[in-house]
Specification:
Layout (H helix, E strand, L loop, with lengths): L6 H10 L2 H8 L3 H15 L4 E3 L4 E3 L1 H29 L3 E7 L1 H18 L3 E7 L6 H4 L3 E5 L7 E9 L1 E5 L1 H7 L20 E6 L2 E6 L9 H9 L5 E4 H10 L3 E2 L9 E8 L6 H20 L2
Parallel strand pairs: 3-4, 3-5
Antiparallel strand pairs: 1-2, 5-12, 6-12, 7-10, 7-11, 8-9
Helix pairs in contact: 1-2, 1-3, 1-4, 2-3, 5-10
Length: about 300
């Protein structure tokens, strides 16, 4: 800022009564300090310093200006120090929003670990399946799952998720196992928030509309229904991984399994990412990656 030019140099000269000592303090040349102070005096249209070959003293106006500017320069130095320390010792509040179930299962435990490791950081975690406007709601970071809509937000992929179509052994014993996508119309399908399942057929994405007796917006409820033999279900791995490993649920149509989807960290493009938010994003990325590897 133009109004700050020469102020730090003037304060340094006033404190040391020397252009040479001021230049040493500011790690610059005597000529640079002299030019900045002279430009400041010219801008203010007032003489701040009496210069002789032997010493430098303040004029009356210089004394008044020094008393006011000294606190400003000290405040600026403290502000710069605080920001520098924040790089290594982050502090302050981070507001995060995430989907309810995924947030409870995977994010909350990691955020709790983060709070243990960084005691000067506070986190407000808002679990909701509504997509909040980050700027309007004052949110620093949003965690979103799956395919992203076009947005002005900056996205960082933290991890991936894999969806499976599966059913209980009892259901498959009673109704048979589907081997083609067209056979889904003959089966009871457990419907989530959308009545469309996604597949990959000969390297091309394909969506199939499904129907059944139960429709529910809870993945845990759909998982329970599938385990009870009420139908086929398509759910992400973090709901059913243990059931697939134990055999309580069996994957069907594996040849049509869709590609993995991203788990994303989103933040406003118009806001500079603060060290505390950046640190949390990196912490979540490392933690979710470890969780993903441990589930394989």
């Amino acid at each position: 800022m133009a109004n700050w030019e020469g102020v730090s140099e003037f304060v340094a000269v006033a404190e040391s009564s020397s252009f040479t000592l001021a230049a040493q303090k500011l790690s610059t040349s005597v000529a640079q300090v002299s030019r900045r102070v002279s430009a400041l005096e010219e801008r203010l249209a007032v003489k701040l310093l009496n210069r002789t070959t032997r010493k430098v003293t303040l004029t009356e106006a210089g004394m008044l200006y020094f008393q006011q500017c000294k606190h400003l320069v000290e405040g600026l130095e403290q502000a710069e120090l605080a920001v520098t320390q924040m790089q290594t010792n982050p502090k302050g509040l981070v507001r995060v929003t995430a989907p309810v179930t995924y947030g409870e299962m995977h994010l909350a435990p990691l955020i709790n670990q983060f709070l243990e490791q960084y005691p000067q950081v506070d986190v407000e975690l808002m679990l909701t399946n509504q997509k909040l406007d980050l700027l309007e709601s004052g949110v620093d970071l949003a965690i979103r799952l799956g395919r992203l809509e076009d947005s002005s937000l900056i996205a960082r992929r933290l991890a991936t998720r894999q969806s499976y179509v599966c059913a209980s052994p009892a259901y498959l014993s009673r109704y048979g196992e589907p081997h083609t996508l067209s056979e889904l119309s003959k089966h009871q399908c457990l419907v989530g928030t959308m009545d469309v399942w996604r597949f990959k057929d000969k390297h091309q994405s394909k969506s199939m509309r499904i129907s059944g007796r139960l429709k529910c917006n809870s993945g845990f409820a759909l998982r329970d229904a599938a385990r009870r033999g009420l139908g086929l279900v398509q759910l992400p791995d973090y709901y059913i991984q243990q059931d697939l490993e134990s055999g309580e649920l069996i994957e069907v149509l594996p040849q049509y399994r869709d590609d993995k989807e991203g788990i994303w960290a989103l933040f406003p493009s118009s806001v500079r990412l603060s060290p505390k938010v950046r640190l949390l994003v990196e912490f979540l990325a490392a933690g979710l990656s470890e969780n993903s590897l441990s589930q394989r």
